[in-house]
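Exam revision sheet. Question 4 asks you to relate a sequence to its structure. Input first:
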Amino acid sequence: MVDQATQRTTIMASPQRCFDAAVDFEQYPRWAHDIKEAQTIARDRDGRAVDVKYRVTAMGRSTTYTLRYFYGSDPLRLAWRLQRGDATTRLDGEYTFVAVDGEPEATEVTYQLAVELAVPLPGFVKRRAESRIMHTALDELKAYVEAGAGA
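Answer key, structure tokens:
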């Protein structure tokens, strides 16, 4: 069964700064504490990362997966689809970065995620994992960008 979640936050930085931090995949281990390694394995003709392999440790487990990225510009958008994973059969999601009306240095960030695990887990474990992923995707990104990333 696929679990889906959507959350939003406001980051006090321009949409471009937020987007730039989100597409700097090799820097993820600096701010996304569960990500131990991020390696770009393919780029598009514009030099943007298309396939990125991750090594993650969380809740006492280690896993690896590769995501394929897709870019959008209006609004700034970063989407991904799971290519390979040893613990997931689906790990698809999207960030959107939209300027807050009247505040050029404020961005509403929306994070959507759809996850399907290779092995069934109890509901409370899945909810805990989902909460941790959302925290990393939004709260840790917010702290990283507001501390000056992409400036």
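Marking note for examiners. The first helix runs from residue 15 to 22.
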